[in-house]
Amino acid sequence: MSIDAKELMYIRNSVKSITDEIGRKIIGSQNTIKFMFIAMTSSNHILLEGVPGLAKTLIANEFASHLKMPFKRIQFTPDMLPSDITGSIIFNLETRKLEFREGPIFTNVLLADEINRTPSKVQSALLESMEEKQVSVGGITNDLPKPFFVVATQNPIEQEGTFPLAEALMDRFIFRVILKYPKRDEELRILNRNLTGKSNPTYIDPEFMMKMRDMVDSVYVSDDMKEYMVDLMRRTRENNKVYVGASPRTTAKLLNAARSCALIHGRDYIVPEDIYYIAHALLNHRIILKPEALIDSAEAGADTAMKIVDEILGEVPAPQ
Fold it and tell me: Model confidence over 260-293: pLDDT tens digits?
């Protein structure tokens, strides 16, 4: 399917407008919103990691509201059961029949808040839904609403009462976006912002979002760009600081995310800048570092991984 130039311009302007509108409410959120658009249009999901108070929940809520989509939040706790997410089979006393009662996962945008505070058996309840877009309970499979998009959050400073995400679940998130404290001028803007007055917010309806997902496959990728992406992923496996590099599935996700990145920027072809933009968020949770790499660095594991991604991007020449 060919992409109309007017539609490309509409997508670019709409994404920019929504990003700017949310950015006025949540200072410094523009990049995070763009990553959320890229994840959603590529039929993937996103993990937001940061200390409490960085507006992770508010970002997800605002994003859903600008897409005119139902939004639900699950607060994960250690005593949860998988049925608290997926729903369960109940006996209806009036009809004398077993019925399936849907859980909160049946929505378009789901916020899985503090996902690392629940045991792995509950975390795994998200696996099928995130990958297959369906839920199986009692031998019956139920399709989830379309589009279905998960925004998960986790707090990196909690130690007690937390359960680290398994690699299989981490891989379901195309991006791990690490939120930092705002800069000094941004924190001043938070205090001085004025949220009063009328506004005309921009919306993207669910039907057009599904159309954007179909457009992603039509974004042109040259052979040179494909070779560049393969060389980048292979270089992660050859780096002497990396124990386990990016898998071939990651290469496929990189291609899909790069196409989505081009689309939201109003292009029907990808360029090296698309790769630079998404590489850190896509790779920082997919490469496993050697112990000596962490020992030699005074920084956290995620920061070390980011520097290694920088090294790899600098070592592999991009197409001209």
Answer: 999 999 999 999 999 999 999 999 988 888 887 7
Output the pLDDT for position 195: 67
What residues contact residue 154 under an 8 Å CB cut-off, 6+ apart? 47, 48, 49, 114, 115, 116, 165
φ and ψ of 33, to 5 deg? -65, -40
What lies within 8 Å, CB to CB, of 18 at 6+ separation is 33, 66, 201, 202, 203, 204
* Percentage helix, strand, coil for the chain under 3-state DSSP, each rounded to 5: 50, 15, 35
Residues 6+ apart with CB under 8 A from 181: 51, 54
Task: For 98-139, write each residue's pLDDT tens digit.
Answer: 888 888 999 999 999 998 888 888 888 887 788 888 888 877
Q: Strand 288-289 and strand 134-137: pairing?
A: unpaired
**Among 172, 176, 165, residue whose Cα is nearest residue 149:** 172
From CA 242, how far away is CA 311, in angstroms rounded? 12
List, in sequence order, every beta strand (DSSP E) within 64-178: 71-75, 87-92, 97-102, 109-113, 134-137, 140-143, 149-154, 173-178
Domains observed in the chain: 28-186 (3.40.50.300), 219-315 (1.10.8.80)
State how far the Cα of 148 lies from the Cα of 170, in Å rounded to an integer. 17
Cα gap 299→312, rounded to integer Å: 18
Q: For residue 290, with 0-12 CB atoms within 10 Å meaning exposed, 13-18 middle and 19 or more buried, which class applies? A: middle
Q: What single-letter DSSP state applies at residue 220? A: B
Residues in the chain: 320
DSSP code of residue 146: S
SS3 142: strand
Tokens 């990808």 -> residue: 270
Taking a C-beta distance cutoff of 8 angstroms, is the pair 147, 213 a contact?
A: yes
Asked if residue 36 lies in contact with residue 64, where contact means CB atoms within 8 angstroms, the answer is no
